[in-house]
Specification:
Layout lengths: L6 E12 L4 E10 H4 L5 E3 L1 E2 L2 E2 L9 E3 L12 E7 L6 H4 L3 E2 L10 E2 L6 E6 L4 E3 L2 E10 L5 E7 L7 E2 L1 E2 L10 E9 L3 E11 L22 E7 L1
Parallel strand pairs: 11-18
Antiparallel strand pairs: 1-2, 1-7, 3-6, 4-5, 8-9, 10-12, 12-16, 13-14, 13-17, 15-16, 17-18
Length: 227
């Protein structure tokens, strides 16, 4: 790789007509050299000792951990190294954060996954009885690892630490968490979950607004009725 190498461009076999540019484009994106050469950025050709299925990118598919899935180009056709900044439409028009409502100024690309969590049990608007309930969910982040998950049973007025469950995956997967809730009073409750990672990122109460809604990661919230 030459000294001036700046980005690695990966082109897929899939293509389509873009109505905004009136031209056919293949799905092509680039990675900065540092991200492309990361030890865990790989080109996959199989999983579970079987060729990857066509719908997942057969015969070759890029895997870019920590970034949203649009970076993991499927059905790889060609890989090239460039000494400039790639400006294809799937990188400079689509998959961009547009933070202004009235114009496209100050746009910047979608890259790392935002810290997030979600409540899986109980379900939103579920009716439950008084007693002991196990609140369950998952949390994940694109930078570092999840270090804390907090739960609120009173719409965010007070918070308690949930238990992060030990798992086999110490890499880039989500973590499972749980919290034992003892409830004796009937009524309606708003339950929230909030994650923190090893880089000090905390799930926000309100998401970062952008025109296309990418990266939504506001504190998760459900309502339950205790009868």
């Amino acid at each position: 790789m030459g000294e001036g190498a700046k980005e690695v461009v990966v082109e897929g076999y899939d293509y389509g007509l873009r109505t905004d540019l009136d031209k056919v484009y293949t799905y092509t994106r680039s990675l900065p050299i540092q991200k492309a050469l990361h030890q865990d950025t790989i080109i996959a050709y199989e999983y579970n000792n079987q060729p990857i299925p066509f719908k997942h990118g057969y015969p070759l598919r890029l895997i870019v951990p920590q970034w949203y899935a649009m970076a993991s180009v499927k059905w790889i056709k060609q890989i090239s190294v460039i000494n400039t900044t790639f400006n294809g439409p799937f990188q400079t028009i689509d998959y961009m954060y547009y933070p202004n409502k009235d114009n496209d100024q100050n746009a910047f690309p979608v890259t790392a996954i935002n810290i997030n969590s979600t409540i899986q049990k109980p379900l939103d608007m579920e009716k439950i009885n008084t007693g002991v309930h196990l609140i369950k969910g998952i949390a994940w982040t694109g930078k570092g690892v999840i270090t804390k998950v907090e739960i609120s049973m009173d719409d965010g007025y007070t918070w308690s630490n949930a238990d992060i469950l030990p798992g086999k995956n110490a890499g880039y997967g989500w973590v499972s968490w749980s919290f034992e809730w003892k409830i004796s009073e009937k009524g309606e409750y708003t339950i929230k979950s909030r994650a923190t990672d090893s880089f000090g990122q905390i799930q926000p109460n309100l998401p970062f607004w952008n025109k296309k809604g990418y990266g939504y990661n506001a504190i998760d919230k459900i309502k339950v009725k205790v009868e």
